[in-house]
Design brief:
This protein has one domain (about 15-60). It has 4 helices and no strands. It has helices spanning about 1-10, 10-25, 30-45, 45-60.
Length: about 70
């Protein structure tokens, strides 16, 4: 429940920013685990929240996927 509340507290624009950072990190040579750790550190969010944003971004084909 805490993660859901955390997700709701972030605007869609902020979630898209986090998703873009995640994808860019992977595009620049980080593996998935490294990119998640990088985003957790950079945005001060939980690892589980990063995974939820990652899933949301892929399901909705957020940039840069579209």
């Amino acid at each position: 429940m805490i993660q859901e509340k955390e997700l709701d507290q972030l605007s869609e624009a902020r979630r898209k920013e986090i998703f873009l950072a995640l994808v860019n990190a992977q595009d620049h040579g980080m593996d998935v685990a490294q990119s998640r750790r990088f985003v957790v550190f950079r945005f001060k969010v939980s690892k589980s929240l990063v995974r939820k944003i990652e899933r949301e971004g892929m399901e909705n084909e957020w940039p840069p996927l579209c």
